[in-house]
Amino acid sequence: MLEQALVQLLLLLGATVLVVLVFQRFRIPPSLGYLLVGVMLGAHTAGPVIDNDYIDVIAEFGIVFLLFTIGLSFSLPQIYALRHTILGLGTAQVALTTLVVSMIAWWLGLPGPAAFVVGAVFAQSSTSIITKQLLEQGESQARHGRLGTTMSVFQDITAVPFVVIIPVLGVAAMHEVAGALGMALAKAFLAFVIVLLSGRYLLRPLFHLVAERRSAELFTLTVLFVSLVSAWTTKTLGLSMAFGAFLAGMVLGDTEFRHQVESTIRPFRDVLLGLFFVSIGMLVEPALLPDIWLEALLGAVGLLGIKVVLITLIVRFSGVDPQTAFRTGLVLAVGGEFGFALLAIGLDGNVIASRPAQIVLNAVLFSMILAPLLIRFNQPLALWAFGRSRGRAKPAGDVPTPSEPTESQGHVVICGFGRTGQTVSRFLESEGFDYLALDMDPAIVREARLAGQQVFYGDSSDLTVLENVGVERAALLVISHDDRPAALATLRNAKRLNPELAAVVRTRDQQHVEELRKAGATEVIPETLEASMLLTSHALQSLGVPLYRVALRLQEQRSSHYRMLRELFRGTLDSIKPEASEQERLHSVLMSEGSPAIGQSLSELDTERDDVSVTALVRDDKRERYPGAATEVQTNDVLVLLGSQDNLERVERRLTGSGQPPE
């Protein structure tokens, strides 16, 4: 028995690694890879079959941990600030989508209970696909990104009453359904109170006590215990485990431990969420696909179209500009993971028959394949549909937005008004320079406005927002946040409006400097390198080096774009990163006897044509920095080369006559 279970586990892991590796290679969402693994190893396809009894139990914890991490991103103050969005827009979206789709399904011939299941399934959106795609695009903090994320989280919460209603639809009278729903809401309120009180009086002291022990294992065990005991609490009350995990995450999201908790739970979430998708893939019956593919495809188109139209109208009715409303609709159009769970409940309760369930299942799958494209191109599609909309609604809390073009001339635009942006503004103000700042945190904007500063709520990567703050007439653009995708989008849009605009950009380290320069940055300030410079300055002064020489050395490095600081040897872990082949690194090459380069001068080697430079030469255990171009290479010399991995491999093969790549 144990041997059989081990074989199945190895088969599952091996297939998953292979498929997800291929999908990531072609930039296809891994969730679709997990679904494919489930189809391949399910009972409805030829070949090996995995027993899904244990997978179903374990996979449910993937949704639990997903909702736990989502809760971390929505603390109680944020939920309160967005209460009108969540209760108003969220309720309207779920209710109207369920109603419209249910009526269409009933009109097409499905029984009422089955039609309701279809409506409930279509009302859900994939929080994992939405958040992942928005993060990759740098739009997670944009207005449409936050609206989409918030409303998708609310959809996950609405799964609680659906879980109660669907099993009894086929047999219960209407008053019994109403009673069950009322009881579920009462239990949900009780669970909220329990988790809220325990979070306030137990969780924070508990995590303080654990953090004092400085044990990573103990911290991990505590995070798992808290998330699972919260899930168990709501499960005991007859509610969804995911709902309890969401409440626990929401409480912890308001503490100083939020980021470490999220980092700790992420590996468990990703693996178990993958198993959840595998379990859903096992429900697919490929043998039925030739008969139902057209209905499934039309269902996917209907799902996407109906949700885009309804969500755009709902968000537009709330006062948001048409372009943002449409982009929110595109983000939320995708079908969701909880839709699969609701469909499985409907099948178990015999509320919906197998054939229509397969059509709905495949329709949601098709929508999940198409949706990443809609999310990726939401801005071009919105520009095509509505043009450049200038009207912009204010965010929650009546925070001012740059809704009208400014007439400022020669001012500085600061993107991101956190610690760095505020520091820059203080110096600009002291020197008498005018500036306008943009930030996506309503609390920062509100406080800064009260202090009399020109700070607006807005997504700096949005072309229209940049127009409204007068980038085409600005003297300087400062990007002070460390969101690289958003910074790239901001630079490209700013250069479209003002090709001559100088731009100073903050980045975390040197690996993205060239990418930002190519996008239009005049100067890129890497935090880690500047920290190294400051540390070096203090170290040299402590050793008695005169201050003028220290300043000269630092200025030389800044003038050469941190040349010496970029000369780094890479370790094994660095070499397996996806971007490793594009990063510059140092590599030492031994000139053995018989190497073609022996007897040639460094200028004759012409390594510069491959964007590789010689930074040092080691001869007879003596190291010479930046040897002259006339230096001849001798046997047993070691050349220290600087370049990208691909270029280093090419140069080494040419210099040594070997096909071996650098280690």
Please explain how this structure is put together.
This protein is α/β, with parallel strands linked by helices and 663 residues long. Helix content is 63%, strand content 8%. The chain has helices at 2-25, 30-41, 52-72, 76-81, 83-107, 112-123, 127-137, 143-168, 174-212, 216-236, 241-252, 258-281, 289-317, 322-332, 337-348, 354-376, 378-386, 419-430, 442-450, 463-468, 484-497, 513-519, 527-542, 547-559, 563-566, 572-575, 602-605, 645-656, and strands at 412-415, 435-439, 455-457, 476-479, 502-507, 523-526, 584-590, 613-619, 622-625, 638-644. The strands form 2 sheets. A 6-stranded parallel beta sheet has the order 3-2-1-4-5-6, with helices on both faces. It has a 4-stranded antiparallel beta sheet with strand order 7-10-8-9, with helices on one face. α8 packs across α14 and α15 (337-348) runs antiparallel to α16 (354-376). The model is unreliable at 389-394 and 570-581 (pLDDT under 50).
